[in-house]
Amino acid sequence: MDIGQMKCSSSYGKPPWIFKGSALYQFHLVKAATVRACIPKEFRLVEAFGYTLGGFFLANYDDSPAGVFDEFDLFLSNRWAAKVLVNSVEACDHGRKEVGLPSHVARFSKTITAVSGKSKSKNIGFLNAIGMNAVFCEPRDCMDVQVTEINDPTVKDICNINLTTFVPASNIGNWMGPAIKMSLPSFSGRTEYYPNLLKYSCQIECRVRAVHPAKVSGPPSMPKSEAEQSSEIHHAIEEFMDNSKNLCVAVMSSKPILALKFSCMKMQVEAPVVVPNSFNNSLATS
């Protein structure tokens, strides 16, 4: 049985859709039980000692069908986007209505602060274990990216994620790593717009290098006095934390094992297709 191709609207033009910019691709070790409860039942996890892969993809696009925008993807098992945050209404609508992604509008606030003193070269244990002795030189600046989801129509913060990563010193900043090409078959759907399971192809060309993993912190706690004065918002935060505890909090607070910086990135996304029931039995995540 062939996989049926979906119809796409003309807001982005005809696929494939091209996105250009840069990104941070960070992998974490996540408890398999947490992931299993949040992915389609058709998927079979590849796990070891009770853990599997998760993480996030933080991108800044300077050229795309929606113009300039930022994107934050929380992924599970490397192929399932559990949450997508963008600071573009057009990009959000496209993700929801044409790709079947759980997209939401968010604010991205970025600040850069100087880091004093020198840091000795470091090795990431995971890279050493697989024979890639990655050395990280002295950082010069620290960039903090705060991602705040907007809960329309109240436009209140219900999720804050702080990402702190290092901007490399000028003596190594010019080296962007080798040029690579990679294909990332991904799955989406199971949303209010597309209840069916979907599959789409994402092809990436970029320069890639290992970087120091970003430091991640979750949503800040709300003061009691403020919560009492706005019980509705406080309830929304509690509900969000309960529903997402095994997602955002568990994934983002888990141990990072590898972070990759994508520079000069060109990402080509194909139109999604509906996965037939006969194909579901062969699915396995990695």
Cα radius of gyration in angstroms? 19 Å
- CA-to-CA gap between the ends? 24 Å
Largest sheet descriptor: 13 strands, mixed
The number of helical segments is 7
User: What is the strand content?
Assistant: over 45%
The share of residues in helices is 10-25%
Element-by-element helix/strand order: EEHEEEHEEHEEEHEEEHHEEH
Uncertain runs: 1-9, 118-124, 126-139, 154-158, 169-173, 232-245
Q: Rough shape? A: globular
The structure class reads: alpha+beta
In total, the number of strands is 15
Can you give the mean pLDDT? 76
Question: What features would you describe in this structure?
Answer:
The chain is of the alpha+beta class. The protein contains 7 helices and 15 strands. Strands 1, 2, 3, 4, 5, 6, 9, 10, 11, 12, 13, 14 and 15 form a 13-stranded mixed beta sheet that branches.
